Amino acid sequence: MKILARRVPDAVVLLMRLYDSDRQEGEAASAFFRRIDPKRVTATLGELVTAAPADGDRFDIGETQGFQVETKDGECAA
Amino acid sequence: MSSPSSQPHLPRFSDPKDIDDFVQKLEAFERGELGPDQFRAFRLTRGVYGQRQDDEQMIRVKIPAGLIGKEQLEALADVGDTYARGLGHLTTRQNVQFHFVKMKEAEAALRRLDQAGLTTREACGNAVRTVTACEVAEVCGGAAFDVTPYAEALTRLFLRHPMSGSLPRKFKTAFSGCAKDCAFGAINDVGFIAEVRDGRRGFKVLAAGGLSTTPQAAITLHDFVPAEEIGRVGEAILRLFFHMGNRENKHRARLKYVLRKLGEQGFRDAYARHRADVDAEAAGELKLPAAPDRAPAPPVVDGAPSPGYLAWRAASVVDQKQDGYAAVYARLFLGDITTAQMRALGDVITRFGDGTVRLTIDQNLLIPWVDARSLPALHRALDALGLARLGIHTAHDVTSCPGASSCNLAVTSSRTLAGAISERLEQPDARDLSAIAATTIKISGCPNSCGQHHVADLGFHGGAKHVGPVTVPVYQLHLGGGVGPDGRS
């Protein structure tokens, strides 16, 4: 599931609320997020993943200019 | 044993000849005698990595098992102050790296590091990378034994090994003190998990794990090998990789692709053949270091606890298995540490601990061997340095790669997202969520997983999406990741 960059912080809060409300007693976050039905996750995130991008969503977080993918060969695999 | 006021002798890994070699190759490149690709491949194996910005280098300093002391911290601080804007950065392999170093100043930086025994050799590129280790293995009640001496010995076996700098791709090694695998051996090319069996020290050996765009869980190569054999194990796997790794396609070059190509049995057979050669040659002998000459500082008792002490004690302090001592975490924001903090930390570990600090694989610090009676005073000292931040190992303690601020591969600014998440979790509608204490978050700016997004409860990797004529930044969500067999991404 892809989430617009600027919406990720709100998505994190919703996912954490989901853990607080739906976890079983003593269930660790890792186990919960492995178990949870992806459809339930999609429903929880709602408009964060379904609404069309607003103007501000075109920019990466902390940026005020248009987003461009500018990648070159990485040096990790020279 | 040293007296508490003296500095402990910590292992030295540098060799000035490596720097001479670097200078010689740099000059050859500048004269046009060495091509850019050849020079790049070489300089990476000396820890000098080109940033996204022209003529800006990242220099990565290898810190095996994340173990350093005051002398090393001062050398790192000097390099940061003189050549790198006063800032260092801890990585998920327990290294320290400096950004925005000019190529013309690289030699001087390397020379200063060498004075403290610190090396950048094989820190980047197609090389045996820093051997990592569980930061608490010396002091944790759950650890079978301290894996640090084994990590150091294997580092020495691999460092400047004839194959180490000319592998098909990078090669990562990790040591964990127990089956919890805190050092993530399962996502390394080789993982050693400590165990005592029938009174004998040894390791479970995992092989060919990895993350990146196609994560691969490691296979168990040995259920148990006696500790003295792990040099031979490492040597045999290294030879296997050197000879059988894909040198044509860098995207299919890691050891996990050898596993996929040969299949598990084929991989085991290939390992057995190399292992037989190693045994016949008596190669790969492990030379364990002498026992360290470190001693904890006497207690520092100077007044009542400050406000906030109890919360800090609950969040950041781990009781050691050694009675009366504690190990203390200091959470950094995304692994960033200022040179002023480095220098002050050198004093803190001398005054309160045994003169050492561990850099952790989640980009934080651990100060072991603190007398429990010193904790209120240590809290005050760390607080004054901005190092008593709460929230270690919670959702606030996000791991992130450098992202688009310096890396050529990155699509998005992962570090900025990490800050935005932490800020969001401070808001009134979020700050009381119990999930914050229970959840780990890791972010990468691209699918390559330097931020280890596959092994977090909530993982994110950056990408781009086309919406009509516009390209927008997005993150792929990964839920419930981990290093265990049931981890998913």
What is this structure's SSE topology?
The complex is a heterodimer of chains A (78) and B (489).
Chain A: E1 2-4, H1 8-22, H2 29-35, H3 38-45, H4 47-50
Chain B: H1 16-30, H2 36-44, E1 48-50, E2 57-61, E3 67-69, H3 70-83, E4 87-90, E5 96-101, H4 106-115, E6 128-133, H5 148-158, E7 171-176, E8 190-197, E9 200-207, E10 219-226, H6 230-244, H7 255-281, H8 309-316, E11 317-319, E12 325-330, E13 336-338, H9 339-352, E14 356-359, E15 365-371, H10 375-384, E16 399-400, H11 414-425, H12 435-438, E17 441-444, E18 458-467, E19 470-479
Parallel strand pairs in B: 6-7, 7-8, 16-17, 17-18
Antiparallel strand pairs in B: 1-2, 2-5, 3-14, 4-5, 4-13, 8-9, 9-10, 11-12, 12-15, 14-15, 18-19
Helix pairs in contact in B: 1-2, 1-4, 3-4, 3-9, 5-6, 6-7
Account of the 3D structure:
- The complex is a heterodimer of chains A (78) and B (489).
- Helices cover 44% and strands 4% of the residues of chain A.
- Chain A has helices at residues 8-22, 29-35, 38-45, 47-50; one strand at residues 2-4.
- Chain A is extended.
- Chain B is α+β, with helices and mostly antiparallel strands.
- Helices cover 30% and strands 22% of the residues of chain B.
- In chain B, a hairpin with a 2-residue loop joins strand 8 (190-197) and strand 9 (200-207).
- The chains are: A mainly alpha (78), B alpha+beta (489).
- At the A-B interface, strand 1, helix 1 and helix 2 of A face helix 2, helix 11, helix 12, strand 18 and strand 19 of B.
- Strand 1 (2-4) of chain A pairs antiparallel with strand 19 (470-479) of chain B.
